[in-house]
Write a structure and sequence with these properties.
This protein is mainly alpha-helical. It has one domain (3-77). It is 74% helix and 0% strand. α2 (23-32) runs parallel beside α3 (46-53), α2 (23-32) runs antiparallel to α4 (55-77) and α3 runs antiparallel to α4 (55-77).
């Protein structure tokens, strides 16, 4: 079997799992004790975290969301 096929077989599930982590939800649930999906737009994204939980948590959610995308790209280059 081609080595690149095996490499993709490992890479795809890891990338999917990285992308599925809802950092906005996890941060607001852990730190503020609230479910961000019940407020604002109902999204777990950075803009809804900003509206409902404030700038500090929104900045953390943004950094973590960008990091999971960057990590997937870095893994693909290895």
């Amino acid at each position: 079997m081609d080595e690149s096929v095996v490499q993709y077989a490992y890479f795809l599930p890891i990338s999917y799992l990285l992308g599925s982590v809802p950092w906005g939800y996890l941060l607001t649930q852990t730190i503020k004790g609230m479910d961000v999906r019940e407020y604002g737009s109902g999204s777990t994204g950075t803009s809804n975290v900003l509206r409902t939980a404030g700038g500090a948590l929104a900045a953390a959610a943004l950094v973590l969301d960008v990091s999971k995308g960057a990590l997937a790209v870095l893994l693909a280059r290895v």
